[in-house]
């Protein structure tokens, strides 16, 4: 029997009852196959996250369509494991979609994939799995779990840095890590596709999912407008001068450059960027790129992948899903994380997550509540 790094084992046989979350893509299919090969008793499950799956994006761009469900079932048949579809559409609507809309309405920029991992895949799904007698949930995320001699576990970056998903898993706590399997963390994507082809899995060449699965046409602004309505407001420069109008402040994100529809160019001819979004007075402030330089931030609702950070410490931080790590000093006070960056970073918005790392180890994650800039925008 072969095994993979980070697989929890029972003292007697090492055989686990594993629930494999199968999205219909190549990664989750290979992860399930590897769990079977490791000797575990595996059951596949596809999460139905839409009340009407046909209203979700078709083709290979999402992970929640009828096509994806059928791909997952075919993969389970090839692997030779039982397969079920679980309806979590209502929970997904409440915890992910409604949260997404509310965050934009409040002038923040949420990460729905991170919220889905926290509230759906490693809360609702894991809770149900444990209640049914499963020992662990297996997913196709690219991350590694390291078992320590004292029985505790650590979450680490994947070997394939280009595919690493530890940022969106930084919300997992120690109890959730204890019941998680990430069989792909030590493998590159190219190898996974080759392995899927050898195993006879039809999803071997299926394109990766991307974008937001519940926005059918990829038009985030249109999706929000349908739910929040339109509300004309002003676009201002940093001294408060009106430059144009918009249909709703929720349609903008910090650092945005395109789609500003300004009536006149900047005096220096350089591009303008969104520096601030104020839902209270429905204004959007724009200015030069230098106005995006963030040198410190405060984050709330910290979640720790093990022992909580205490006092002041030196770490690296990732501030966006595909962003680079930056050296930081972090201090935890009164359940708030205060982070000072060694070098300013741009495009950091409230609502996003800051994830702290110690080398490749994920220390924890928190939600950015406010930022401090070298050049403050009007009204910040």
How would you explain this protein's 3D organization?
- The chain is an alpha/beta fold and 380 residues long.
- It has three domains: 17-205, HUPs (Rossmann fold, 3-Layer(aba) Sandwich); 230-291, Roll (SH3 type barrels); 293-373, Beta Barrel (Elongation Factor Tu (Ef-tu), domain 3), CATH 2.40.30.
- 24% of the residues lie in helices and 29% in strands.
- It is built from eight helices and 17 strands.
- The chain has helices at residues 26-37, 66-79, 89-105, 112-131, 166-169, 174-177, 189-198, 220-228, and strands at 17-21, 41-48, 83-87, 136-138, 143-147, 153-157, 180-181, 233-236, 242-246, 273-278, 283-287, 294-304, 312-318, 325-333, 336-345, 353-358, 361-373.
- The strands form four sheets. Strands 12-15-14-13-16-17 form a six-stranded antiparallel beta barrel. Strands 3-2-1-4-7 form a five-stranded parallel beta sheet, with helices on both faces.
- A hairpin with a 6-residue loop joins strand 13 and strand 14 (325-333).
- Helix 1 (26-37) packs across helix 7.
- The longest helix is centred in the first third of the chain and has 20 residues, at 112-131.
- The protein is globular.
- The model is unreliable at 1-5 and 55-61 (pLDDT under 50).
């Amino acid at each position: 029997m072969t095994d993979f790094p980070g697989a929890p084992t029972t003292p007697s046989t090492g055989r686990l009852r594993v629930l494999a979350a199968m999205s219909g893509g190549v990664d989750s299919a290979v992860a399930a196959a590897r769990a079977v090969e490791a000797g575990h008793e595996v059951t596949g499950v596809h999460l139905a996250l839409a009340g009407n799956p046909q209203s979700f994006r078709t083709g290979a761009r999402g992970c929640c369509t009828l096509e994806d469900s059928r791909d997952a079932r075919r993969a389970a048949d090839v692997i030779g494991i039982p397969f079920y579809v679980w309806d979590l559409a209502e929970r997904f609507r409440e915890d992910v979609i409604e949260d997404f809309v509310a965050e934009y309405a409040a002038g923040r920029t949420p990460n729905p994939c991170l919220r889905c991992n926290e509230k759906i895949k490693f809360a609702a799904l894991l809770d149900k799995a444990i209640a049914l007698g499963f020992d662990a949930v297996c997913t196709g995320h690219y991350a590694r779990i390291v078992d320590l001699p004292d029985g505790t576990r650590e979450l680490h970056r994947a070997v394939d840095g280009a595919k690493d998903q530890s940022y969106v898993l930084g919300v997992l706590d120690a109890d959730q890590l204890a019941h998680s399997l990430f069989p792909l963390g030590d493998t590159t994507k190219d190898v996974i596709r080759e392995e899927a082809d050898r195993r006879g899995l039809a999803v071997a060449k299926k394109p990766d999912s991307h974008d937001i699965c519940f926005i059918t046409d990829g038009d985030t602004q249109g999706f929000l407008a349908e739910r929040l309505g339109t509300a004309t407001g002003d676009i201002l420069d940093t001294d408060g001068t009106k430059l144009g109008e918009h249909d709703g402040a929720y349609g903008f994100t910090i650092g945005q450059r395109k789609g500003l529809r300004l009536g006149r160019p900047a005096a220096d001819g350089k591009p303008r960027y969104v520096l601030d979004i104020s839902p209270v007075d429905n204004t959007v402030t724009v200015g030069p790129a230098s106005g995006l330089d963030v040198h410190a931030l405060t984050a709330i609702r910290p979640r720790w992948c093990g022992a909580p950070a205490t006092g002041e410490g030196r770490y690296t931080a990732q501030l966006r899903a595909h962003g680079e790590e930056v050296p930081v000093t972090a201090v935890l006070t009164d359940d708030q994380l205060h982070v000072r960056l060694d070098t300013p970073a741009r495009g950091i918005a409230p609502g996003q997550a800051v994830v702290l790392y110690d080398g490749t180890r994920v220390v924890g994650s928190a939600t950015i509540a406010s930022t401090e800039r070298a050049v403050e925008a009007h009204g910040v």
